[in-house]
Amino acid sequence: MSAASDGDEPVEGTVAPALAAELPGLRLRWTVAADALGGRSPRALKRRLDHVSQRFRGADAVALRTRPVPRAYRAFFRQIGLDPDAEPPPAEAVALQRLMRGELHSGDRLADALALAILETGVPVVAFAEAQLAGDVTLRAATAGETLPTGDYAHDVPAGRLVLADGAGPVAILFGRLSDRHAAGRERAAVRLVAIQVPGVPVAHVDEALWLAGDALTEVD
Amino acid sequence: VERGTALVLIDQTHPFAPVAAPDEAAARRTLRAQIARLERELGDTVLAAFPHVRQQPGPRGSGPRILTLGELERVRDELADRLRAARVVVARRAELEERSRMLLEEMLREPERHKRVRLPVADLGERGCGAYSVRPRLGVIGMLMGWWHVKLSSGCPEPAPA
């Protein structure tokens, strides 16, 4: 486990210098939920999600892209070669899911905690199993020959692809797939919550997202 | 001279870092700012014209990466094209709605000169499936006597049985 976080206060992660120079304002923040309970969502989390869901209508989904934080992620997606109309940023993806399913609550504590954080703040949060990580998670460009462990196999990661990586290699594609081996699961364990801050997003939103997700993961029913 | 040497060394130690002269890096920053502005304007335009502007997603890209100057230019130009197209739709809608408002005023003022004309409320920029139509009062009697008036039909048609 990294010594940088006391498991509560979000801390600044490392962005590779070349990337930071090229994309000023791109930051990584993370925290550790030392005792994430996993399993099914507690009633309180379900109620919160239902409340958010009731506030969130079709018109809100359409207007989402004009709100400052989701808009910042849309612009950033374009700047790094992603088309937000083809691959919606996480907040829009969750909103779309809400409209299609009619509710946000999935029953899975981890998925619900991340959905709550994303929809309340617009900031995407990803969760890794702390025990699987080798040191700090950094944001950098992949180098030739690196792979992302998925299931029994490992996917090649093209050189230059932006990834979240620990000391051993990539653990997720930025705003994309997580390594199966490193993704947090349903079991009770320590979970590393990581949020990507892009230009135009206040740090308070990022920390709020991490706190919301952390609280939801540790809340006792 | 020392600065130039340092730059070469950095590029060699980071083979996947963008290799660029300082002015090219500045150009990329400018392009990114333009992309952010265009995305903002496109979002506002799409929302203002909802649901008339449809966003066509482009082909799936090749994942998140640092874009080259040429790639950033393509993204910027494509966004500018989308924004231009969206603004054309908005302008056409505004023209249609203005014409429709004038037509409605004329229908209300002189219904007998607009017999059987039907004007969907959607053409006025309103929500719903209703339509203004000029109909004879009292059916055949109104038709024979030349008594015409404007009626607003409301409600959407029942969905067809599966």
Description:
The complex is a heterodimer of chains A (221) and B (162). The longest helix of chain A is centred in the C-terminal third of the chain and has 16 residues, at 203-218. Chain A is globular. Chain A has a four-stranded antiparallel β-sheet, covered by helices on one side. Chain A contains seven helices and ten strands. Chain A is of the alpha+beta class and 221 residues long. Helices cover 35% and strands 23% of the residues of chain A. Helices cover 53% and strands 9% of the residues of chain B. By secondary structure, chain B is mainly α. Chain B has helices at 2-13, 22-48, 69-109, 140-145; strands at residues 118-120, 131-136, 148-153. The chains are: A alpha+beta (221), B mainly alpha (162). The interface between A and B is medium-sized, with 36 and 34 residues.
Oligomer, anyone? heterodimer
Low-confidence stretches of chain A: 1-6
Distance between the termini of chain A: 27 Å
| Cα-atom radius of gyration of chain B | 28 Å
Strand order of the largest sheet of chain B: 1-2-3
| Main pleated sheet of chain A | 4 strands, antiparallel
Shape of chain B: elongated
* Beta-strand proportion of chain B: 5-15%
Let me know the average pLDDT of chain A. 88
Category from helices, strands and their pairing of chain B = mainly alpha
In DSSP terms (H or I, runs of 4 or more residues), the helix count of chain B works out at 4
Query: Fraction of residues of chain A in helices?
Result: 25-40%
Q: How would you summarize what this structure contains?
A:
The complex is a heterodimer of chains A (221) and B (162). Chain A has 7 helices and 10 strands. Chain A has helices at residues 17-22, 43-55, 58-63, 68-79, 90-101, 109-121, 203-218, and strands at residues 11-12, 14-15, 27-36, 125-129, 138-141, 147-150, 153-156, 162-166, 169-173, 189-197.
